[in-house]
Fold this sequence. Notes:
Strand content: over 45%
Shape: flat
Radius of gyration: 25 Å
Largest sheet: 5 strands, antiparallel
Number of strands: 7
Oligomer: single chain
Number of helices: 2
Amino acid sequence: xxxxxxxxxxxxxxxxxxxxxxxxxxxxxxxxxxxxxxxxxxxxxxxxxxxxxxxxxxxxxxxxxxxxxxxxxxxxxxxxxxxxxxxxxxxxxxxxxxxxxxxxxxxxxxx
Length: 111
């Protein structure tokens, strides 16, 4: 058998192998809803500069709000969420939550 014919047969084999295995599709329906969350903690770290091998490196500020929903803690990042919640630790506020078909939640933002 010539080398060209072997290469052709191997290519056809790999194409058929890939086509036969296919891709699994995951049914994830996402619904958004307004929920009540309790603000557990807020965290802020100011921006700062460092020098690594004589090259200045700028590090961005970090804003994080930790909330509790259904007994589980979630972190929401961003200056907007931090500014809304930094003085409200222990209070209950409205937030937008994404509920996925497998029953898990993801808190998106604070209202």
